[in-house]
Amino acid sequence: MSERIADIGVLGLGTMGANLALNMAEKGFKVAVNNRTVEKGYALRDENGEIGQNIVPTDSIEDFLSRLKAPRLVLFMVPAGPIVDEEMQRIMPLLSPGDIIIDAGNADFNDTLRRSRLVEETPFHFVGMGVSGGELGARHGPSMMVGGARETYASLQPILEPISAKYEGEPCVAWLGPDGAGHFVKTIHNGIEYADMQMIAEIYGILRDGLGLAAGEMADIFADWNTRGLSSYLVEITAVTLAEKDSDTGKPMVDVILDEAGQKGTGRWSVIESQKLGVGATTIEAAVSARSVSSRKAERELTESLYSSVASAKAEFHGDKDGLNELEAALETAKIIAYAQGFAVLTAASAEHSWNLPLGEIARIWRAGCIIRSQFLDDITKAYDGAEPPANLLHAPEFVARVSAGESALRRVVAKAALAGIAVPALAAALSYFDDYRRGRGTTNLTQAQRDLFGAHTFHRTDKDGVFHHQWPAV
Ligand code: NDP
What we know:
The chain has 475 residues and is an alpha/beta fold. It has 21 helices and ten strands.
């Protein structure tokens, strides 16, 4: 019988699993590992010097589980979907009461709800945990969004806190709520990431096609913006990617990369869930759609040839200091609106699922380690941690001031892009949402009138309580 020496077990040694295991091993935890391709566990131990000494490779699932201290912590890092169910079916008959399964992949939170209910019927525990930060985050400090029972988190905290990213010394990991809360928050994190990246890409489009700047010049602009309000990992890597040269051709790397974006589903899930909750997350929708349109390269080329006669007005963008300041302010303002939408989805989901999501805490654990990490998230934390947390971020005094200051820049940039024929779907979505959300009287009174005319769907009146139907003229 092998000695039960491991503090935690990692099942799945792909990019994320291997790096998380090394991160844990480096922090002094003994980590049992198991992988479909068994050799990867041995390689992880043998190729990582002293850190590797804390890795315990195993040949079978039985061997793996036999090396774990009680209660066993079994962390899954396998592709999301049916493989998680298959692996759960494989290990559950071998577990003991109190053991904890942690699914740390990018699960659809609906699957996490289902799995949580399934495990509730057993003496085991199930934790759905979102992990952000990619390969480097997993290795040196990810941001982790933990769901499941609060009591279960007490068993994980001593391992998760040391391996997490730190923002000014504070660990970027927290228990966020029961069952699917962690994976839901991770999904919306990714949705916001989509919107943020799309808006940056649209500003890049203006700099490239509106101002005719070269990649290297744009790198300097983004690097400059990264020193102020827009300071963030995504803006930082924008500057880095724009500055990079292709060794084959000597051209900027971005100029030799095909303009077809991939997606793995979390952005789409964010949109689906926001629609189910009745929350407009238009910037995320625009970003997901833009990736879909981008992947239809041949169709876009055909359309370009058919509409080549459509003249775009001469771009009125200016590459001087004022012109660049305007683009910077527009991006910053649209970004606030996108994050407000993401947090509005979280607010609605929290009410729908009785999760009581700690919104300030969520912004706090996103400040480091994850892809959307930024200075700006600290401002969001402060807004939610204040004496009167806002119902929507756009109501927080600090953001009212910032959006009021930047709104005209966003308006001018979107208008000029429209005239110049430069696509800015997410920036435009942010502006339109803002204009819709900030007006007390909208236009759906007309929609209600139409619905009542063709379907007797009834309406409310502005001057009397009750539900009304009007006898409209026959059409
Ligand atoms: P990889 O593709 O790098 O690794 C997948 C792992 O799962 C491998 O160890 C693989 O084993 C194993 N595996 C694949 N299929 C099976 C199967 N049928 N049965 C058993 N094991 C299997 O994935 P990642 O590490 O990138 O991602 C893991 C999870 O983390 C996913 O849910 C992903 O969405 C999520 N994630 C990924 C991030 C990233 O930046 N990559 C960031 C955040 C989350 P083998 O070695 O034998 O192929």
